[in-house]
Amino acid sequence: MKLFRPVNQAELDLIQASGMKAFPPRLPEQPIFYPVLNQSYAEQITREWNVPTYGVGYVLCFEVTDDFIKKYPVQKVGGDLHVELWIPAEKLDEMNKNIIGEIEVISKFQ
Description:
This protein has a single domain (2-109), classed as ADP-ribosylation fold, CATH 3.20.170. Helix content is 32%, strand content 30%. It has helices at 9-17, 39-54, 66-69, 92-97, and strands at residues 2-7, 32-33, 57-64, 75-76, 83-84, 87-88, 99-109. The mean pLDDT is 96.
């Protein structure tokens, strides 16, 4: 499954340090990893949250094996555009092992 993730510069730096192969562990106050299912929603989050808060935001794209991702039902959190997965923080390492290829930066907003 193809997924998208809005990130700030600090998170992108950690992903780049992994060779674009893994997302960093969640912070203690972040119990869930939220990839989104479409680029438009990821861009909306980046423009409305990351840019005002951090001055810059990126949208990443990555693929995860269907065997892993099918364990997590799609969550609709607003309109039809606002769909995401809720992956518990303790499963992020397993998700990273199921990423196919590399995580890609597909857009940048300032």
